[in-house]
Write a structure and sequence with these properties.
By secondary structure, the chain is mainly β. The protein is built from 3 helices and 10 strands, in the order ααβββαβββββββ. It has a single domain, classed as OB fold (Dihydrolipoamide Acetyltransferase, E2P), CATH 2.40.50. It starts with 11 loop residues before the first helix and ends with a strand. Homodimer.
Length: about 130
């Protein structure tokens, strides 16, 4: 008899996880309310006593803005300086561990992996992402 393939079913879990994470559909008008812009990380530092959080300063072209993000387990602050990220700029500010966050940077995640959504260096800070 044939041995069962040890890799059988590999890849099923990520698909099942992705399906379980689905949200309800929204209309184009709802999506149009989200303002996405290119921001360049000009400074980044850990937040004391917050293992998961980093405090980033983003140059959005029209202003520099502070964003707090739960990416410290995936990125060192010095790795992020100079990177161009995609930021939601019209979220209501929220205070996290004593620091104000004025937006959210976008990232893809699956299981224990996370990768920032970035754009090429040639794209200007503040460019609209559609």
């Amino acid at each position: 008899a044939a041995k069962p393939d040890a890799n059988a079913g590999a890849g099923v879990a990520p698909a099942a996880e992705a399906a379980a994470d689905r949200k309800e559909e929204i209309g184009i008008d709802d999506f149009a309310k989200v303002e996405l812009r290119v921001g360049q990380v000009v400074a980044c530092e850990p937040i004391p006593k917050a293992d998961k959080l980093l405090k980033l300063q983003l140059d959005l072209g029209f202003e520099t803005r502070q964003v707090v993000s739960g990416i410290a387990k995936f990125y060192k602050p010095e790795e992020l300086v100079g990177r161009k990220v995609i930021c939601v700029v019209n979220l209501k500010p929220v205070k996290l561990r004593g620091e104000w966050s004025h937006g959210m940077i976008l990232a893809a995640s699956q299981g224990d992996r996370l990768t920032l959504a970035t754009v090429p260096d040639g794209m200007p800070n503040g460019a609209i992402v559609k």
